[in-house]
Design brief:
The chain has 386 residues and is of the alpha+beta class. 30% of the residues lie in helices and 36% in strands.
């Protein structure tokens, strides 16, 4: 019984070994084609171009050396025209906001009846003082003529002299008061201190103004200026009389010229101001505008704008190497002229010479090391026959 059991067990082990060997051979047979297929696919992928592209070369062109800035448009100088008299009724307002005025032009009038009455009163006081002086002077002259005769005492003579001096002082006081009233009468007529444009009017007919109260604001000579905010690194590059092109909010452009550059930098913003004179145009005080300072022209290496790839806040260009593989190069951008952008920070090891090729469009679909197919640039020209 034991002998049969032993033989049965041996058969089972033999069958298991045969099954294991058969499974191993089957697995080996089927796994080999799969590996080869995967390898072939990988080889095909690595050898297939990722994209068909056209290339551009760096071109050295003349570009304007400009500085961009923002700022507000303000009056060159603004005059505040206030009331010089107090307690008088504003009778007439002769101008409104936006009116152009000339120097010395009457722009408002106060009621002058009170001042005229006081003027008449002080005129009469002056006449009285002059009459008193005539009498006092006559008495003093007689006293001086008989002084040596001893007819009058020393005390009497001194009294005549002092009366004459008092009478003369009263004339001077009356004249001063009369002049004050004349000045007040002149102040009832408000005139423009300079030629310009009325920018603000707070004067109201019928109001009783206090001395010093603002009535109008005047943009002197109608001149406006653009106060450009320039970074501390650029402000030293800007000089007086340099041309500036200003773009207004409505899209209109205005040409100006630098009048002066601020000698100090703001502690809060770390910016300085450049004051640009503007001609009379559509610009209005209070506008916020963008402008360009045209400093000079110099050479710049440029590529088409479509050749620039922006990724994660950085700019890249895709250089096509001799083997048609892509080399992604991080660059810095500077000035722009039409459809070309200045490329900076390219190193000699990156481009060797100006004959290096760069993907002119579609670089966003490529990565470093990708294989591309390069086709020549095609230029479409329109010809016309006469």
């Amino acid at each position: 019984m034991q002998i049969r059991t032993s033989r049965f067990g041996n058969k089972i082990w033999l069958i298991l070994v045969i099954i294991i060997i058969a499974l191993f051979l089957v697995f080996k047979h089927f796994s080999k084609p799969v590996t080869q297929t995967t390898s072939n696919v990988a080889n095909n992928t690595s050898s297939s171009p990722a994209l068909t592209v056209q290339t551009s070369k760096l071109i050295n062109i003349e570009m304007d050396n400009t500085i961009e800035a923002n700022g507000s448009i303000q009056p060159w100088q603004e005059s505040i025209i206030g009331a010089e008299v107090s307690g008088l009724l504003l009778k007439e307002v002769l101008v409104n906001v936006g009116d152009e005025v000339k120097k010395g032009q009457t722009i408002a009038k106060f009621s002058s009846s009170t001042i005229e009455a006081e003027l008449a009163q002080f005129t009469a006081t002056l006449a009285e003082a002059k009459a008193n002086y005539i009498e006092a002077n006559s008495n003093a002259e007689r006293a001086r003529s008989i002084k040596e005769m001893g007819v009058l005492s020393r005390q009497q003579i001194d009294q005549f002299m002092s009366t004459e001096a008092v009478a003369k002082a009263r004339i001077e006081s009356a004249e001063a008061n009369l002049n004050v009233q004349k000045i007040k009468l002149n102040q009832t007529v408000v005139t423009a201190p300079d030629a310009g444009i009325i920018s603000t009017r707070t004067a109201t007919v019928g109001a009783v103004a206090n001395q010093g109260q603002e009535l109008f604001r005047l943009i002197r000579q109608g001149r406006l200026e653009w106060r450009a905010e320039i970074t501390s690194s650029d402000i030293s590059k800007i000089k007086t009389n340099e041309p500036v092109t200003l773009t207004l909010p409505n899209g209109q452009t205005v040409n100006g010229k630098v009048r002066i550059v601020s000698p100090s930098i703001d502690n809060q913003t770390r910016n300085g101001l450049a004051f640009v004179d503007l001609p009379k145009s559509a610009a209005k005080a209070g506008m916020y505008a963008r402008g360009s300072f045209h400093l000079s022209q110099n050479k710049a290496l440029t590529l088409p704008a479509n050749a620039i790839v922006l990724r994660e806040g950085f700019a890249y260009v895709m250089q096509v190497k001799a083997d048609h593989r892509i080399k992604q190069i991080k660059v810095k951008l500077a000035r722009r002229s039409a459809d070309r952008i200045e490329i900076t920070s390219l190193k000699e090891d990156d481009l060797k010479d100006l004959n290096a090729d760069f993907v002119s469009a579609g670089g966003a679909f490529l990565a470093d090391g990708d294989l591309v197919r390069v086709v020549p640039n095609t230029l479409t020209t329109n010809s016309s026959t006469n």
